[in-house]
Design brief:
six-stranded parallel beta sheet, GMC_OxRdtase_N, alpha/beta, 28% helix, 16 helices, seven-stranded mixed beta sheet, 20% strand, 28 strands, GMC_Oxidoreductase-Related, 586 residues, globular
Amino acid sequence: MAVAGSACSPALVLVLAAAVVLGCLCLAALSEDEQLENLRFVRHAQDAPLVSHYNYIVIGGGTAGCPLAATLSEHSRVLLLERGGLPYGNMSSQQHFTDALADTSPSSPAQRFISEDGVVNARARVLGGGSCLNAGFYTRASNEYVRAAGWDARLVNSSYRWVERSLVFRPDVPPWQAALRDALLEAGVTPDNGFTFDHVTGTKIGGTIFDNSGQRHTAADFLRHARPRGLTVLLYATVSRILFRRQDGVPYPVAYGVLFADPLGVQHRVYLRDGAKNEVILSSGTLGSPQLLMLSGVGPQAHLEAHGIEVLVDQPMVGQGVADNPMNSVFIPSPVPVGLSLVQVVGITRSGSFIEGVSGSEFGVPVTDDVYRRARNFGMFSPQTGQLGTLPPKQRTPEALQRAAEAMLRLDRRAFRGGFILEKILGPVSAGHIELRTADPRANPAVTFNYFQEAEDLERCVHGIETIERVIQSRAFSNFTYANASVESIFTDSANFPVNLLPRHVNDSRSPEQYCRDTVMTIWHYHGGCHVGAVVDDDYRVFGVQGLRVIDSSTFKYSPGTNPQATVMMLGRYMGVRIQAERWRK
């Protein structure tokens, strides 16, 4: 027991409060059928014809695919294929994501996976993609990032503004977040940049996709801007491959359609209409886009042949350069109640680490017995999900998980008071790869991120941890820390909890380097696998084929800004405008 006044084990304190990080899916109080009625161009895949034709086929209704499809629909016939359902329902924000992570059915909005590095992760499976599951923080990429990407700065800015008009708000900053802001400034993360969407060194308040009533807005909202007669959205449509053919006088295979299955297993074919400017566009994300390229015969030859896939184009760079920004966090128990808050404040340091925070006490309020029990279902950190806990995966039987859940229910309310301070590094420099586990498109591929393989990444993490230490010790944050709790004890408590499946180094965990390695988690900002210059050109056309582009986070070499969703949304709008302009250019 390191923290005076705590009534339970520090390890369990960590798991309880950690639910705040992920218990943040806020849903409209409408059923899926009611939402389908409001969006008449959205249908279930089993209601689709067996054969259909469009100008554009967009695969993936996520953070990039929704703004892209909405934009293209202004002047063309567009089909948007989404493997998940609608991001609407009647659940509370905390309960929904817990249920989503525990749910392994095809309709679950979050598909769990564990990287080959031993870090637990999640992949969105819902219209709106990761914007339906994240902490809602909105911030643009830096000007340097935009220049390095070769993007048109004027169109980038207008595309960001289009996004911001649709679903970005200025947050109300509660006391815990205000204390974090002041503590970052006291710790030297200066200047104070106030409220801004811009990525600039110092401490700032960013935007949020939660409105003032607490309602989450998602990339699916962009579809309200679509031309209804120009767009069809099919839900629960699992694409198995892109169709290619050879054409006289064309040196490369030409994409001409896709094959997808509905939940009943019925196969549907969608073809591009005649015309050289009609295209298939992959927006299936960092895991989905390279996976579908490989399933369609575009990828490393030996790897595809090992899975019995006919090789169309030997493209060894598909699936390479996949990276995930490592996140490390520390839980700060509070002597006073702390209100629920997601990421609102960020410290952008000169050393290449970003500091953010989340807090909350709602998980410990025993309003009624039912609410109390439901509140103590702890999201991705819950034993109910079978993901993170003290038991190895093979020992996580239903009985063992139930015992762990019941133990949590006996914890003192004070265990729920506090918040997390997180650090994420720039880049990262370390990268890995994606490989197929199977030729089944419903299965997640095998992913290796190689966290902290490069010394530069580890050095940035250490600087971030040192910044967090100064924040904890600051006068500005003193109201939310126990007076007799040392920084060392706070970090030791956090280091002792198994937040991943990596081996523990108990004796070394308090060295900053070992803390970074031992407590590494994801912040769900993974990217790469279809890099510009390696798999796609500057216009996001896939090398070696025609009629196919990739437009999503898989094309990024580095993650943009402190949180990437703003730039992924912007890219969908940006490329939609450019593709429209190309269409009408003679």
